Amino acid sequence: MKRFLLFLLFAFPAVASAQKLSESAVEDISAKMATQFQRRNDPALVFVTEQMSRSGSGGLEVDKTMMELKKDPAALDAALKFLYQYSDCNRQTLIANLRAMNVSSGNVFPLATYIVNKNKNEAKTLQEEKAELIRIGAIPQVTSVMVAPPASQPAVINTNALPPAANTPGTTQPAAAATTTTAPATSAAPVEDTRNWEVRSVFSITKPDELATLYGKENLELRDATGLDGNDAGKAWYVYPDTENEMQVIFNADSSKTIIFTQERSKWKSPFGIKPGDPIEKVNKVNARAFRVNGFEWTNGGVVDSWEGGAMDKKGVQILFRAVNSGDPKLYDQFTGEKKFRSDNASLKKLGVIVEKVVFRTYQ
User: Fold this and answer.
1) Where is the signal peptide (predicted)?
2) CA distances from 343 to 293, 314, 321 (A)
3) DSSP β-ladder status, 317-323 and 340-342
């Protein structure tokens, strides 16, 4: 019995330490990730930052979050998870990446152990998600390690993205055969859309002139705006007005900005990846828990009342929902009037509840 108690005495601290990082490790990895983030071209941190923005883990001001990870334990855990994902959920590759970031040698293995243990149940999902992002072109297929990978894992490189090999001294390219045949006319390739669709680009601006610089004066128009409650919200600058990519920006008196989206087919990439037209089930998943919504057809009807401490709580996100299938009065009446309902109520799927409007409020 004594031996068993002694075993527990020594085992539990070991298990606990594996589930918690020391202050030194937190300081170290936070500072190193901030340094790499500032370079703006580091592939690992570009990937991590995009995933933080895509998942909403970085909040509305993801740049600020990446610079201050030690102040937000949840954001730090998310950043470490995405570094693990970038490393193909491979411990050796993760260690190589931590070393490449100049993490102190004494913190490398504790960090690797912590990251792997915390995310081991998600490893397969993370790998599948990364593969899908590469497949659809959301991220480039580049090396998954910042330095030479371990011998057991070759680097993965997108050879299709490499430029054609240039002639080297002493070599020549075969000359094209002479011909008098006229090549058939071909239609011009479609022009690539190089516009920046990242919503976070708007967060740092402070005046309308900067909007004009970003999107062109010809694509701006000052109009009346309405809030989630349907009431007058003052004047807003409409970017790409009357198009699928319409975005409204309100410069508030307290130096904050309100950014509004109402179009379902927009190209904008917003924090948390939420857009008009998304089903309420997706918002549940992003928030990582159910939330409360005001009853339809009433004051602030369809507006989120509380995120219930979820991922979007206190992040400056407001959403208005609407029911697409409201033809069944008996069913619809369960969610109308002076009441609040939970977003995970199974009957909401029958109503086809979707996002109608998304509002971001930022003080950056």
Assistant:
1) 1-18
2) 7, 18, 10
3) unpaired
**Distance between CA atoms of 50 and 38, rounded to whole angstroms?**
14
| Sole residue written with tokens 């600058």 | 237
State whether residue 353 is helix, strand or coil: strand
As given in the structure block, the two tokens for residue 25 are 């490790």
pLDDT of 155 > 80? The answer is no
Tokens of 29: 């990895």
**Angle formed at CA 203 by CA 202 and CA 205, multiple of 5 degrees:** 70
In the predicted model, what is the mean pLDDT of residues 81-98?
A: 91
Higher pLDDT, 166 or 344: 344
Q: What's phi and psi for 215, nearest 5 deg?
A: -120, 0
User: What is the rounded distance in angstroms from the CA atom of residue 231 to the CA atom of residue 80?
Assistant: 42
User: Would you list the domain boundaries of the chain?
Assistant: 2-135, 198-364
Contacts of 97 (CB under 8 A, 6+ apart): 44, 83, 86, 87, 145, 146, 147
Q: What are the Cα distances from residue 240, in Å, to 80, 206, 218?
A: 37, 19, 9
**Greater model confidence, 301 or 2:** 301
| pLDDT at residue 145, rounded to an integer | 56
Give the class (CATH, top level) of 198-364: mainly beta
Q: How confident is the model at residue 187 (pLDDT cuts 50, 70, 90)?
A: low
Helices (H) and strands (E) in the chain, counts: 13, 9
The residue among 46, 44, 52, 49 whose CA lies nearest residue 84 is 44
For residue 139, what are the contacts with CB-CB under 8 A and spacing of at least 6?
47, 50, 130, 133
Higher per-residue confidence, 288 vs 54: 288
Q: What is the per-residue pLDDT for 297? A: 92
CA 30 – CA 66 distance, rounded (Å): 8
Q: Return d(Cα 290, Cα 344) in angstroms, integer.
A: 6
Whether residue 98 contacts residue 63, with contact meaning beta carbons closer than 8 Å, is answered with no
Strand extents, DSSP E, the chain: 220-226, 232-239, 247-251, 257-261, 292-294, 304-306, 317-323, 340-342, 353-362
C-alpha–C-alpha distance, residues 108 and 99, integer Å: 7
Q: Which residue has the higher pLDDT, 152 or 281?
A: 281
